[in-house]
Automatic annotation (TrEMBL):
The keyword Lipid biosynthesis does not apply. It is an enzyme of class 3 (hydrolase). Residues 39-205 form the Nucleoside phosphorylase domain. Catalyzes the hydrolysis of futalosine (FL) to dehypoxanthine futalosine (DHFL) and hypoxanthine, a step in the biosynthesis of menaquinone (MK, vitamin K2). This is Futalosine hydrolase. It holds the Pfam family PNP_UDP_1. NCBIfam families: fut_nucase, PRK08236.1. Belongs to the PNP/UDP phosphorylase family. Futalosine hydrolase subfamily. GO terms for biological process: L-methionine salvage from S-adenosylmethionine; menaquinone biosynthetic process; nucleoside metabolic process.
Length: 237
């Protein structure tokens, strides 16, 4: 928070500062191609939800301690897309970030931790921000699943879609990033560029270069939206 003089009064307002968390350096560099450093910081935090949560929590704590807190966290990178809504090369913006495999397997199927009586499996992204991000980038809004195991069969893809009919994409960091942001009371967004279909494992079908270009292009268009993301907007959910 920063103290500002406004018409002779001292008021408190948040300076928009965005932390963008990618998994790997190639994703970080793609975002940094188009995302101005003045808007925030782009960091590669590692693969998987636990590593992402630990690194994002550390960055949020450090920034707050230094008196330059982040006001928004964005989980960004490549991801798998569910057909037919999210083809390779397209962008998906999360309106919900859901941990798809956090729970217990039972004889009657999977039970999320929420049905076991604890925890959370979903973080919602601010509705106005999702709407503006989708309009600016052309990304489709929907649920982005976080998994600890990349889906590799048609049966697993179908099971995920049956449990999460609004799912457009899966990746491995969003829920960890969102948990860290929530612990700090900071809103979260997730933007994924689709590099491969969710389904039977086929490494030859990955289009990582195409997805990284789509990610860079998307962040160039998203940057003005994020720069305009004010504390007033943050209450418009
Ligand atoms: O070995 C495989 O078959 C395989 C298939 C897809 C992705 C991987 C990865 O190791 C990438 C992990 C990395 O990229 C994100 N990502 C990209 N595609 C997916 C996906 O279909 N499901 C989950 N995560 C994906 C993820 O966020 C990681 O950062 C291996």
């Amino acid at each position: 928070m920063e103290l500002q003089a406004e018409e002779g009064l001292l008021t408190t307002s948040a300076v928009p500062r965005v932390l963008v968390a990618t998994a790997v350096p190639a994703e970080r560099d793609a975002v940094a191609r188009t995302f101005p450093g003045t808007t925030g910081q782009v960091v590669a935090v590692g693969v998987g939800p636990a590593r992402a949560a630990a690194c994002v929590a550390t960055a949020l704590t450090g920034a707050a301690r230094d008196g330059r807190p982040f006001t928004l966290v964005v989980s960004a990178g490549i991801g798998g897309g569910f057909a037919p809504g999210a083809p390779v090369g397209s962008l998906v913006v999360a309106d919900e970030i859901t941990a798809a495999d956090l729970g217990a397997e039972t004889a009657d199927g999977f039970l999320p931790v929420t049905e076991l009586g604890f925890g959370t499996i979903t973080h919602r992204c601010p509705a106005a921000l999702v709407r503006d991000a989708a309009a600016a980038t052309g990304a489709r809004p929907g649920t982005v699943l976080t998994v600890s195991t990349v889906t590799g069969t048609a049966a697993r893809a179908a099971a995920l879609r049956a449990r999460h009919p609004r799912a457009l994409a899966e990746a491995m960091e969003g829920f960890g990033v969102a948990e860290a942001a929530a612990a700090h009371g900071v809103p979260v967004l997730e933007l994924r560029a689709v590099s491969n279909p969710v389904g039977p494992r086929d490494r030859a079908a990955w289009r990582i270069g195409e997805a990284l270009d789509a990610l860079a292009d998307g962040f160039g268009k998203l940057a003005p939206v994020l720069e305009g993301w004010t504390s007033h907007d943050r209450h418009d959910r």
